[in-house]
Amino acid sequence: MPDNKLSILVVTQYFWPENMRINDLVRDLSERGHSVTVLTGLPNYPEGAVDARYSVDPESFMAYSGAKIVRVPLVPRGKRSISLIMNYLSFFTAASTIGAWKLRAEKYDAVFVYAVSPVMVAIPALLIGRMKKAPVFIWVLDLWPETLRAVGVLRHPSLLAVVGKMVSWIYNRADYLLLQSHGFLDNVKRYCTKDIAPERLVYFPSWAEDDFSGVTSPTSSLLARDDQLFTVLFAGNLGEAQDFPAVIEAARALKGKVAVRWVIVGDGRMSDWLATKVKSHQLDNVLLLGRHPLEDMPALFASADALLVSLKTNDVFEKTIPGKVQAYLASGKPILGMINGEAARVINESGSGLSCPSGDAAALTRITLELATMSAKQLERMGAAGREYYLEHYSKPTLLARLEQLFRGATLRKGRK
């Protein structure tokens, strides 16, 4: 392999055919000529069961855009908390043992961790990195143990303290911690040793998937554009953190008073609850379209007038920028945010839309009405401002070049090249 090309191991519990941003990164690194291997599990997100396509023909899911995929068994995440915990535990255990064995003959210049929950995904990466004498980069996309407390998975202080010690063990053994939000810095430093070198903590935000990079989008076959209605669209995971009770309350408040329709696209733990509420309240202004492939999203976005991001409030979520915010900005559509913290700051700073406090259904009702009564020119200016902000702050080519620079610098310090 030429000196300027690298052999990279990506460790991630979630990967294609699951719709994850790491898919883009793997493809682009491979297209740049790097040798990329992905250590991952069986696709089961977000449905909770192993993808039927994989079950029928697993061999067709062992390579992706030139990258090699090594999969290990895991317990599917299911729909209950206990199955989710088993899912987390089974992956990092299998990846640390079966995965390490499968990769025993390989050599790598860098190990990259896609560290959404659970944080234990970094453990096999650290073990393999130590065996291969390769630097380990952890892309911190979720804050543990604070997230566990925030969503109610763990509440007991002693258990949270145990998880905190594990997080400290992980962070202190990584060569670089890449932080998706400026708001992560103080939290991450709390679990690092006091003498950690500042250059090991790097701001590295998310970007929008390539599907949203085009200027124009085709007509959606899932949702017809209707200029007589102001269409608010939510796309993504339908979980408890997204605070759909407040969204439904806003939809009820506006029903029959203004021509607004709410379109919800996705799947998750709140899917059944949403279907029940829409039926019981006879909300004909709310459409539940279910889950659809990522490639269908740009056309769906183009059929909407505004894009909704919502997240419950707590000290963890306020530091996080949901990945959909970048996709919304890149799409050039106005954003409605019922959200606090960093995400609200981005919406307000960019001029890309309107935001209100998390959980405030009355305020969401008010800003939705305000946006729905704006002129087409005003909405167009908001969308353009969002896209301009995206290109300035979240350009994937710039971020990817920065990551390659970090890989090469760490590799040289390790004496690998």
Which short descriptors sum up this protein?
417 residues, alpha/beta, 16% strand, 15 helices, Rossmann fold
Would you kindly provide a brief summary of this structure?
The protein is of the alpha/beta class. Helices cover 41% and strands 16% of the residues. It folds into two domains: 7-207 and 395-413, Rossmann fold; 211-393, Rossmann fold.
Structure report:
The structure is a single chain. The protein is of the alpha/beta class and 417 residues long. It folds into two domains: 7-207 and 395-413, Rossmann fold (3-Layer(aba) Sandwich); 211-393, Rossmann fold. It contains 15 helices and 14 strands. The protein has helices at 21-31, 52-56, 81-102, 122-132, 146-150, 157-173, 185-190, 244-254, 271-280, 297-302, 323-331, 341-350, 361-372, 376-393, 396-413, and strands at residues 7-11, 35-40, 63-64, 67-71, 110-115, 136-140, 176-179, 201-203, 230-235, 260-265, 286-290, 306-310, 335-338, 353-356. The strands form two sheets. Strands 3-4-2-1-5-6-7-8 form an eight-stranded mixed beta sheet, with helices on both faces. The protein has a six-stranded parallel beta sheet with strand order 11-10-9-12-13-14, with helices on both faces. α7 links the parallel β7 (176-179) and β8 (201-203). The protein is globular, with a radius of gyration of 22 Å.
